[in-house]
Write a structure and sequence with these properties.
Number of domains of chain A: 2
Helix content of chain A: 25-40%
CATH topology of chain B: Ferritin
Order of helices and strands of chain A: HEEHEHH
CATH topology of the largest domain in chain A: Ubiquitin-like (UB roll)
Distance between the termini of chain A: 68 Å
Strand content of chain A: 15-25%
Shape of chain A: elongated
CATH class of chain B: Mainly Alpha
Largest sheet of chain A: 3 strands, antiparallel
Number of helices of chain B: 12
Oligomer: heterodimer
Number of helices of chain A: 4
CATH superfamily of the largest domain in chain A: Phenylacetic acid degradation B
Distance between the termini of chain B: 45 Å
Radius of gyration of chain B: 21 Å
Largest sheet of chain B: 2 strands, antiparallel
Number of strands of chain B: 2
Protein name (chain A): Phenylacetic acid degradation protein
Order of helices and strands of chain B: HHHHHHHHHEEHHH
Number of domains of chain B: 1
Structural class of chain A: alpha+beta
Radius of gyration of chain A: 24 Å
Structural class of chain B: mainly alpha
Protein name (chain B): 1,2-phenylacetyl-CoA epoxidase subunit A
CATH architecture of chain B: Up-down Bundle
InterPro entries (chain A): PaaB, PaaB_sf
CATH architecture of the largest domain in chain A: Roll
Strand content of chain B: under 5%
Strand order of the largest sheet of chain A: 2-1-3
Organism (chain A): Sulfoacidibacillus thermotolerans
GO biological process, one term (chain B): phenylacetate catabolic process
Shape of chain B: globular
CATH class of the largest domain in chain A: Alpha Beta
Largest interface: A-B, 24 and 29 residues
Chain lengths: 117, 313
């Protein structure tokens, strides 16, 4: 028993912190701990001595599945021009609206309308 | 390791890409990264000792709370850094316990400044002012490190160091505007720490290991560059407080934009760090050992509890 314990070590848990209810959990680092419960406490002491948060996840490092940094081909879907997907691809709208004696608006303008109600 | 692999790796470094623990890397890159971060992490932990000595003796409650917070930060930084070192050392099978116990058998060194005595309250202030100042300069330069996990963790550490810096300066400023006795105490502390700070950044002629770290961009600034930045920033501040710097060779050359200074006793400081032979080295290592070994039963109990849970599941 004693020998078994000596050959055992704490496990690595990756730590994800959610700053507020409208934020996603963000990876901040990792801790070693003997259990998930204690990993949560160590994570709080290591990463939240000052910053505020509403939730913490800890995930055993061995349970994280990741892409490879070296195999950037995985992200090949990002190399094509995607201007048709992006706001910046529609810059000419502003010039055209001007011809119709209107100014271009953005999604922020509509969101702000709601806020002003 | 094929030449092609190495070339590919060096190309990544040259392009300014960050290396991750799971990427292919040359063995000596991995070893240098582990050595650097292990030493950094253990230095954070040992750095808590000179300051913790002043927690019970802090002059008021606010100072006491701030000092406790600082000590807690240093231990926290140690844990974050050791975690990064462990991930790098995973293929070598090195775990937390090894990282900690290496200290007891002199397999990992810690910064020269933490071997020194902190006999007065002014020392607690000067540690925050000059030692943390020097540490921030070093750590800020490492934000550019080619080893991604190190650069990332240093962002958090540097942000917290900014509190340490303000705390140290606050203590120093209070003493500087205090009584003659307080100012004397402050000057004595500056005199005590200055040679240690000149040693802190390491010799101008860097070791082959340090040079290798530059080639790999694990670090990107020379020892002398960092020391010059430190002198340039802190000498005017010390003088502005009406204090003196204990170095009659200290002078700024406007042409070369470099400072001349008296070399610290390289031989003695190196010996001290290599052999843990400083005035407080052994006492602080002994405290660390007592804490680590004294709490072994708690760690064992935790592991046993986990076994019980798994067995009953």
């Amino acid at each position: 028993m004693e020998r078994q314990i000596q050959n055992q070590h704490y496990e690595v848990y990756e730590v994800f912190v959610q700053r507020d209810a409208l934020s996603h959990h963000v990876h901040v680092g990792s801790v070693v701990a003997p259990s998930a419960e204690l990993a949560l406490q160590v994570a709080r002491e290591n990463f939240l001595r000052r910053e505020k948060a509403v939730n913490i996840w800890v995930v055993k490092q061995e349970n994280v599945h990741a892409t490879s940094y070296e195999d950037q081909d995985f992200f090949a879907n990002q190399v094509l021009s995607k201007s048709y997907r992006e706001v910046s691809g529609y810059a000419e709208n502003a010039r055209k609206w001007k011809a119709f004696k209107q100014v271009a608006i953005t999604v922020d303008d509509l969101v702000n309308d709601i806020k002003e109600h | 390791m094929s030449d092609l692999e190495l070339q590919h790796f060096m190309d990544r470094i040259e392009r300014g890409e960050k290396i991750e623990s799971t990427d292919w890397m040359p063995d000596d890159y991995r070893k240098l990264v582990i050595k650097q971060i292990h030493m950094h992490g253990i230095s954070e932990v040992m750095g808590a000792y000179p300051e913790k000595e002043w927690v019970p003796k802090a002059p008021n409650l606010r100072r006491k709370l701030a000092l406790i917070a600082k000590v807690q930060d240093e231990i926290g930084h140690g844990q974050l850094l050791l975690r990064v070192a462990e991930d790098a050392a995973k293929p070598l099978g090195k775990v937390r316990d090894d990282m900690i116990t290496d200290l007891f058998v002199n397999k990992v060194k810690f910064h020269n400044v933490f071997h020194m005595e902190a006999p007065t309250w002014a020392d607690a202030g000067i540690i925050g002012f000059l030692v943390d100042g020097g540490a921030i300069i070093t750590q800020a330069s490492l934000l550019e490190s080619s080893y991604g996990p190190y650069a990332r963790v240093l962002q958090r550490i540097c942000a917290e160091e900014s509190f340490h810096m303000q705390h140290g300066e606050s203590v120093v400023l209070a003493l500087a505007e205090g009584t003659a006795e307080q100012r004397e105490m402050l000057q004595a502390a500056v005199n005590r720490w200055w040679p240690s700070m000149m040693f802190f950044f390491g010799p101008t002629q860097m070791s082959s290991g340090a040079q290798r770290m530059m080639d790999y961009k694990i670090r990107t600034r020379t020892n002398e560059e960092l020391r010059q930045k430190f002198i340039n920033r802190y000498v005017p501040r010390i003088l502005a407080l009406g204090l003196t710097v204990p170095d009659d060779k200290l002078a700024y050359n406007a042409e070369t934009k470099l400072w001349t200074y008296t070399e610290p006793d390289w031989e003695w400081f190196s010996y001290m760090v290599q052999h843990n032979a400083g005035p407080k080295s052994q006492a602080r290592i002994e405290l660390r050992r007592t804490a680590h070994e004294g709490q072994q039963w708690v760690r064992d109990a935790m592991l046993r509890a986990r076994q019980t849970v798994e067995a009953s599941a």
